[in-house]
Amino acid sequence: MGEKRIGVAVDFSVGSRAALQWAxxxxxxxxxxxxxxxxxxxxxxxxxxxxxxGCPLIPLSELCDAQxxxxxxxxxxxxxxxIVNLAATQKEVVVVMKIFWGDPREKLCEAITNIPLxxxxxxxxxLGKLKRAIMGSVSNYVVNQSSCPVTVVKHASST
Amino acid sequence: xxxxxxxxxAMDYSTTSxxxxxxxxxxxxxxxxxxxxxxxxxxxxxxxxKQLFEDTxxxxxxxxxxxxxxxxxxxxxxxxxxxxxxxxxVSVDKKANVVAKVYWGDPREKLCEAVNHLKLDSIVVxxxxxxxxxxxxxxxxxxHVVENATCPVTVVK
Lengths: 159, 157
Description:
The complex is a heterodimer of chains A (159) and B (157). By secondary structure, chain A is α/β, with parallel strands linked by helices. Chain A has helices at residues 14-26, 47-50, 60-63, 66-72, 78-91, 104-114, 137-145; strands at 5-9, 33-40, 58-59, 94-101, 119-123, 150-153. In chain A, strands 3-4-2-1-5-6 form a six-stranded mixed sheet, with helices on both faces. In chain A, helix 7 (137-145) links the parallel strand 5 (119-123) and strand 6. The longest helix of chain A is centred in the middle third of the chain and has 14 residues, at 78-91. Chain B is an alpha/beta fold. Chain B contains seven helices and six strands. Classes of the chains: A alpha/beta (159), B alpha/beta (157). Chains A and B meet through helix 1, helix 7 and strand 6 of A and helix 1, helix 7 and strand 6 of B. Chain A: This is UspA domain-containing protein. Chain A: Residues 4-154 form the UspA domain. Chain A: It holds the Pfam family Usp. Chain A: InterPro entries: Rossmann-like_a/b/a_fold, Universal_stress_UspA, UspA.
């Protein structure tokens, strides 16, 4: 079984951290690639440059570098960085991040086909203003449209 | 992945649920884990068992017993060699415990109940089953389980 590419949809909300932790604890194995996919709104600084394909894969070392991340306009929070650093060392996985600009629903599904991803892990609710009762609109869309298996990780406070 | 987990797999013999089983075997299940194959049968098909096991479902049936024709007949399970082969593989290669549990009733409700009763760490479902309404992308049962189960749900296409 070759190395797999496991994508985790990250918006730096509590739900997405739970999804990331679940992915690391349950599906990610030694040698796999853990790809954090985050979608920034259109109109951001770097948006025009990387609009169609998303930015190049950002390795873990650059993820931890605040100056680099500022350039991309995406600042991972320290908890997320801790989680992935631990996974990288303990489980010997390759951690990268890819940033897309545009609508999260579409871009996540594009990411699945373009990267490509073997599996996607997503939280059930994120930072959306409309606190949907059970499942967020992006999670819902990805579960329906994704071409690969999707795991929805529920965050404790929403159950 | 040190802790042993209990992983449920929803099975209705459809292609996607077999794909879901295979995916779980290849990607999720590790040594020491317990795999619970969840079968939800129509209550109309088996009034005797239904009455007996209506609330809690059948007892957990270990793989060894599941392969016996007598046991399958008793619970109204259709023996399927493809599925048994995959379960054998999981039990031997991955050193996981394999059991099955049969419920009678509405799959939507019963699968979500199973998550709570069996304290499943995670559940895997196919995207579309055998429903008469060939829903475009995600079947009604899968959709319901994704939204309502209290544990992480993996949908496999």
